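User: Sequence recovery, please. Input:
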C-alpha cells in the first residue's frame, strides 16, 4: 500500500457523532496526511419545479448550504483545527458514493474514511456498500457501535486461501501490505486469519468431520500461507486458522486478539457484489474495517 498522503473524509450529519472525523484526525496526527472533509446536503423540496420557481429553489438550496458550512466551521473550531490541517467542502448531491468516487479520482486521494452504518434493509443498497463498490481508493469504515472495551492496536489481515489464482494471490498480498502499513501507524502487530470453511449441513448429516476437514485444509495450504506471510514477519502464534463461517470466525478472532482494525480484500471495483466473504466480514466485524481492491 502506498504512503498515505491525502484522505477524503465523509462527515456524518450534524446530529451524529463524528466518528470518521475523529479517526481521520488520529491518522493525520500519525502520518501528517492531508484531510479533505466533505459534508453532504440534499433536500427534495429544492428540486420540486412544479411547486417552486427557479429563484425560490436556488434560495432554499443556498440557505441550506450556508447553514451546513457554518456548522462545519463551528465544529472545526471546537476541535482547534486550522486550514493548514485540512480543506473542507459542502456538496449538494443525493448520490454520495458517485460524488466521492469522482472527487477521489480527481484529487488522487489515497484513502476514504467514513463511519460504518449497517442496515438490515433489503429494499435499497446502503451507502456503505455503494461506496465500497465505487471508490477507486481503499475505504476505511470506522466502527460506530458502542464498545465494551477500547480497541487495541493490532491489525488483523483476513486472507482468502480458497482460490490460488493470480488475482487472489495479488489481493491477499495487498491485504497484507495494507495491514503492515496500518500496524505501523497504530504501533501494533499484524495478525492474519485464514478461515477454513465447511458445510454445516454435511456436518449435521455426519457426512464430514470438521476436525478432519480443518486438518486437511491446513495441511494443503500451510506452505502457501507461510510463504505469503513470511516477508511480513508474522509469527506462527499470530496466524489463526479457525473453522466455520467466514464472517463469524473473523469477528471472533478480532475479538480474541482485541484488534483495532480488520483488513479485507474486496471484489473488483464496480463489478457486481463486493464478494461473499468480504460482505460477511464487514457485517460481523466488531472494529474498524479497511477494504482494498485487487
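Assistant: Recovered sequence (294 residues):
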Amino acid at each position: 500500500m502506498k504512503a498515505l498522503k491525502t484522505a477524503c473524509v465523509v462527515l456524518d450529519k450534524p446530529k451524529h457523532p463524528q466518528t470518521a472525523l475523529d479517526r481521520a484526525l488520529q491518522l493525520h496526527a500519525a502520518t501528517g496526511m492531508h484531510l479533505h472533509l466533505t459534508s453532504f446536503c440534499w433536500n427534495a423540496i429544492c428540486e420540486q419545479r412544479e411547486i417552486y420557481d427557479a429563484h425560490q429553489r436556488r434560495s432554499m438550496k443556498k440557505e441550506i448550504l450556508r447553514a451546513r458550512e457554518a456548522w462545519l466551521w463551528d465544529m472545526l473550531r471546537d476541535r482547534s483545527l486550522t486550514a493548514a490541517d485540512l480543506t473542507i467542502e459542502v456538496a449538494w448531491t443525493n448520490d454520495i458514493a458517485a460524488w466521492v468516487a469522482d472527487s477521489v479520482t480527481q484529487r488522487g486521494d489515497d484513502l476514504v474514511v467514513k463511519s460504518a452504518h449497517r442496515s438490515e434493509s433489503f429494499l435499497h443498497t446502503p451507502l456503505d456498500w455503494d461506496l465500497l463498490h465505487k471508490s477507486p481508493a481503499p475505504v476505511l469504515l470506522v466502527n460506530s457501535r458502542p464498545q465494551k472495551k477500547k480497541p487495541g492496536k493490532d491489525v488483523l489481515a483476513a486472507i482468502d486461501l480458497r482460490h490460488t489464482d493470480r488475482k487472489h494471490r495479488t489481493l491477499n498480498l495487498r491485504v497484507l501490505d495494507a495491514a503492515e502499513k496500518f500496524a505501523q501507524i497504530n504501533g501494533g502487530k499484524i495478525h492474519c486469519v485464514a478461515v477454513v470453511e465447511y458445510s454445516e449441513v454435511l456436518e449435521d448429516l455426519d457426512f464430514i468431520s470438521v476436525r478432519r476437514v480443518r486438518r486437511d485444509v491446513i495441511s494443503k495450504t500451510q506452505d502457501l500461507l507461510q510463504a505469503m506471510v513470511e516477508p511480513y514477519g508474522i509469527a506462527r502464534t499470530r496466524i489463526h486458522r479457525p473453522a466455520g463461517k467466514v464472517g463469524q470466525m473473523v469477528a471472533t478472532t478480532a475479538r480474541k486478539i482485541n484488534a483495532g482494525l480488520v483488513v479485507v480484500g474486496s471484489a473488483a471495483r464496480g463489478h457486481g457484489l463486493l464478494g461473499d466473504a468480504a460482505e460477511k466480514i464487514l457485517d460481523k466485524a466488531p472494529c474498524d474495517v479497511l477494504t482494498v481492491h485487487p
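The two ends are 11 Å apart (CA to CA).
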